[in-house]
Design brief:
The chain is α/β, with parallel strands linked by helices. It has 2 domains: 192 residues, Spore Coat Polysaccharide Biosynthesis Protein SpsA, Chain A (Alpha-Beta Complex), CATH 3.90.550.10; 92 residues, no CATH class. The protein has 12 helices and 8 strands. The strands form 2 sheets. Strands 3, 4, 5, 6, 7 and 8 form a 6-stranded mixed beta sheet that branches. The chain has a two-stranded parallel sheet with strand order 1-2. The longest helix has 26 residues.
Length: 301
């Protein structure tokens, strides 16, 4: 998977002086991984560090990045080069602080490795331009993963990934990064392959990991909610929307992770104590509008 990931980065149509591939080896102990990294050559820079987790690995890579823009790719995922090239053309056209795109997790892995099928209809490319990242957050359902964005490096460095958060670290970084961003371009074009497998951090569904997921997700919601109190106008409205949608996701995920009505009621009680429940009735999306009303009926005051 790591080899396929790096091959996809090198397949993107960039000149040698435009491309920098920086691999952060977060204390791996697999001989095959070390052998692969040793043979990559000058096209790839390898930063080796003690194992401290994904957040500090990303911070270390971001600190070493030398390009005008930076993007993140997890080692078990890959870019879709042809589609990523289209996103880069959009980046050159607008020169924004942030370009947001989406990911694909449904198509076959074989098709991605071998390239798009000739008779496959390519997705339509659409671009929406916002003067600030806050405007983008206010009007869209934001993708939480950091790898859904290409970010101007000096903007990306304004926010660190949180060191002691195992899950939802992306949600904190993405929300705060967009809060600080200027011109933001959004497209629903899928240019990233998110590989679903049981060995990944999100694929681990053990009870212990589910407890950690719930704790980290709730902590992130509380953390972002506290920031709302420091914001005004569009920024406040945008962050309120983000917090509300993350709270909706949290409620859904508690049930999905535990299938326990007792646990769900307990977590909603915690949200209520934090004044995060009931959810405000807003038309953020059709799903959110229905969910905010339905949960008030199922879990009354």
């Amino acid at each position: 998977m790591l080899r396929e990931c790096i091959d996809s980065l090198l397949a993107v149509q960039l000149a040698d002086n435009e491309r920098e591939v920086l691999v952060v080896d977060d204390g791996s102990d697999a001989p095959a991984t070390r052998a692969l990294l040793a043979e990559l050559g000058p096209a790839v820079r390898v930063l080796t560090k003690a194992h401290e987790g994904v957040s500090l690995a990303r911070n270390a890579g971001l600190a070493q990045a030398r390009g005008e823009y930076v993007g993140f790719v997890d080692a078990d995922d890959m870019l879709l080069p042809d589609r990523y090239d289209t996103c880069l053309a959009c980046l050159r056209r607008h020169g924004p602080d942030v370009l947001a795109f989406v990911h694909d997790e449904k198509k076959s892995e074989k098709a991605f490795v071998q390239g798009e099928k000739k008779n496959e209809k390519s997705p339509a490319f659409r671009e929406d331009v916002y003067e600030t990242g806050a405007q983008y957050m206010l009007r869209n359902n934001v993708h939480g993963a950091c790898w859904n964005y290409i970010v101007r490096t000096d903007v990306a460095r304004l926010v660190d990934f949180p060191a002691r958060v195992r899950y939802t670290e992306d949600e904190r970084w993405t929300s705060l990064m967009l809060l600080r961003a200027g011109r933001t371009v959004s497209t629903a074009f899928p240019a990233y392959y998110y590989r679903l497998h049981t060995a990944s951090a999100t694929g681990n569904v053990s009870p212990e990991m589910n407890v950690q997921r719930m704790a980290d997700a709730l902590s992130t919601i509380v953390y972002l909610d506290a920031i709302c109190a420091t914001l005004k106008d569009t920024e406040n409205d945008a962050f309120r929307r983000r917090v509300s949608q993350l709270t909706m996701d949290f409620i859904v995920n508690v049930w999905r992770w535990t299938h326990s009505f007792r646990t769900l009621r307990r977590q909603i009680g915690v949200l209520r104590e934090r004044r995060l429940f009931p959810l405000p009735i807003k038309k953020y999306s059709r799903l959110y509008a229905v969910f905010s009303v339905l949960t008030r009926i199922l879990f009354p005051f």
